[in-house]
């Protein structure tokens, strides 16, 4: 322990969680890559192939960043939620709670492991798509910021889901009725500029929209919203979610018998 932070304990837990998903790369990294490539192929062909454009950008180039971010969202959430829920069901969550790690250190270790999986999936999927389509990069800063912000947010949401869930049915409900709808209705497959009235307003209430819109801006240089507003929304939500997860772990809610 150095100072007031147990760096060794925190990094040990982080490495343990990273090794957990690296042990099964076919499931945790390569399977999302294959699913995302299939989405790209099917939607590109269904909507006119290379002849379809969204504004001045080909549909394939418009779609690809959204699909990469969707993979990040799903895998960062799955990493932390599954780890905590499985530990609770197997009864070995006590092995995580007993060491001299504070609630803040536990939260940070889990969150960074989810971010690591999300980033790994983004890298593999991005490289695969780069082989298939003509990728351009407008802003590396925007790409790194939004993939990091999204990975942190979904890792935190995954921790909340893992803590409040008592069985896999509860986790499936959160995934199918919250995470998936927000992912698909966030502008991944379309520009929300095509929406009108209340649906346009509702789209701006979806935090996943800001993740995808900002990430897409990093590649194509255009966005459906103000990038700075999206960056601020994501940063604010990450902070609020971190405080919420810290409070849950600190109280031992559904973690301690």
TrEMBL record:
The lineage of its organism: Bacteria, Pseudomonadati, Pseudomonadota, Alphaproteobacteria, Sneathiellales. Its main location: membrane. GO terms for molecular function: ABC-type transporter activity. Signal peptide: none annotated. This is Transport permease protein. The keyword Transmembrane helix applies. It is a multi-pass membrane protein. It is found in: Cell inner membrane; Membrane. It comes from Sneathiella chungangensis. The keyword Nucleus does not apply. GO terms for cellular component: ATP-binding cassette (ABC) transporter complex. Residues 23-252 form the ABC transmembrane type-2 domain. The chain crosses the membrane at residues 21-47, 59-78, 108-133, 139-164, 171-192, 227-249. Keywords: Cell membrane, Membrane, Transmembrane, Transmembrane helix, Transport. Belongs to the ABC-2 integral membrane protein family. It holds the Pfam family ABC2_membrane.
